[in-house]
Amino acid sequence: MTPLYTARSPVARAAAWAWVAFTVLNLLDLGLGLTGKPARDATGAVMAALLLLGCGIAYVLGLRPAIVADEAGVTLRNPLRDVRAPWRSVRRVEGRDAVVVTFAQADGAERSVRAWVLQTSPRSAAKAEARTQREAAKLPKGAATALKGRTPTMFAIDQLNEIAERERPRSDEDATTGTVAWSPVAVASLAVPFVLLLVVVAVL
């Protein structure tokens, strides 16, 4: 499916990639001694395991989270779980401080899930609205009313509702219920370096 709308956190992704680069440089330093003697001992192994665990955290918190909408439905990639809701299963897309998707489950009940990305604190929302109002003051009369409350979160909600309204009647996906599943890659990215760390510490 071709994504029609994708939302990620540029700041979180930049921080995650910065940590990955930091890890690569430090692993090279530990193994090759770029800035001194190589640390190919137990201490170096512990440091390497901690760096890799940090990469796992950077992945699940910075690189993985996203909201992806396509012709068939919407996917919320949260740190450890994936939510997939076909448009025919979506009941509501709403929220103020975060995007919340409510969808039908296989048992007939409704379930609401918050997206990890685009969460906005009340303070940040107030700042964003004040900034929008300052910008709207430069536009023709009435723009301030139209732009009121247009935080990134609200913009994403509007976009998802527009896509849902447009795509729901002709969705070719048979499923009419949403699913929530653990991401094996996300879990492994944390579990593997954590187990490695425990093993290294145990043999010290």
TrEMBL record:
The chain crosses the membrane at residues 16-35, 42-61, 181-203. InterPro entries: CFP-6_PH. Keywords: Membrane, Transmembrane, Transmembrane helix. It holds the Pfam family bPH_6. Residues 64-133 form the Low molecular weight protein antigen 6 PH domain. This is PH domain-containing protein. It comes from Actinomadura logoneensis.
